[in-house]
Input
Amino acid sequence: MSDSTDTVIERILELQGCDPRPHGPSRRLLVSDPEGFGAILHSTAFERTDFVGLLAGPGLLASDGDRWRARRRIVQPAFPPRRPEAHLEHIEWAMPAFIERLEDLARDRRPTCLLEEVTRIVGRIIYRSVFGIEIDPADHRIARFEPMLHAAGELMLSLVTPSGRVDGPLVDRVRRTRIAADEEIDWILERRRTRPVEGVDDALGRLLAAREEGLIDDEGIRDEVRALVLASTETSSNSLVWCLRLLAGRPEIRATIEQELDADDETRLEAAILETLRLYPPVWSNERQATVAIELANQQWAIGDRAVLSVYRLHRDPALWPDPDRFDPDRFIDPEGGPRRPPHRFAYLPFGAGRHLCVGRNLALLEMNRILRTILGRFRIEFEDPDAIEPMLGVVIRAATPITVRVAGRDPLQASEPPA
Ligand code: HEM
Output
């Protein structure tokens, strides 16, 4: 990436850090140190604000208190934290079509949109593992949520930057795109009812069972499906794109990963994934609101004050991460071998912390691992103009313009071979 890399982000974060109302009610105060993050995310005196709810409705991602606790209890068992391999079957189910697609692209050498390619496989994995339904590889259904995700991104930017304006047309657009997303949710619910994948312990199955017990109603199920889509797709697919982009800029690291993968060693691949999530944390900013007057994180908080939690700043703090803008997966590898811990318990929070810790983190990490392993083990992704790629903030950190790539086989013979 060019020297100007991340200037867009820096500018927005600077704005975000300037509090337009430092003395008034409902102040917005920036938090970007690890102690502050730990204190606020673990405090019962701080709750979620309404801002994520505005993006996708009051699902698990946006709620707090008793309602959140009840919903989390329903969904959590579908994501067993100590059995990440529970998701492996779904990922492996989606992989052959993905490989076939990449082989096609490598044969034709035609340019393609990288984000769209990875979103297709992420979408198929999510539909099967979270909603219990199988999608045909040619059916890019997850794209039906894209207008909602884009409008939500715009709204998010307006909400977190003091100069941003949430005007009527934007709110209307979010509402309209949400109606379109709900048509897809109707389809998901109908398909789940008529053609469920047998033997899958999926989140939607758990929500439907909870409805039978009177623990949630139809509207609640819709809110949760919308939240699960918002939480699970753009986060993973943009992280995959950033990882490939970062590796394209450091061919020596990519080569080491390829060699390690050939020897069935994933140490550096895993570290590259963690390092990507440090530099481009999809949830780059978050908010919490004080529910009582309290002194916490070296700050006096009044009821209603908002803590703006800048994960992006935390992850690039030079006091924690030397040469913070440098892509260096070795930060996460212990010189003695094995993984290395972050420099502080709360210095590295791509999946959050405390009671709202991401429910899908194991699924996300495993799917990123398998998708990247497949790509790096067999293919080369050639970027047209990598230095022109600028990051942009929305719901997640994404590229400002679509990234066009060509696919090649890693072994040139493999790419030119006709299909069997
Ligand atoms: C790279 C991928 C992902 C990243 C970086 C990520 C990040 C996060 C973060 C930071 C939070 C905490 C938000 C907060 O504190 O308010 C969160 C919550 C959540 N995530 Fe993820 N996530 C990812 C993938 C997924 C996936 C694949 C799923 C589900 C299939 C998922 C489902 C959720 C849910 C339901 C919550 C709300 C948890 C709660 O409040 O109890 N996420 N995620």
Notes: Residues 60-61, 72, 130, 227-228, 231-232, 235-236, 239, 282-283, 286, 350-352, 356, 358-360, 363-364 surround protoporphyrin IX containing FE (CB under 6 Å). Confidence is low (pLDDT under 50) at residues 412-420.
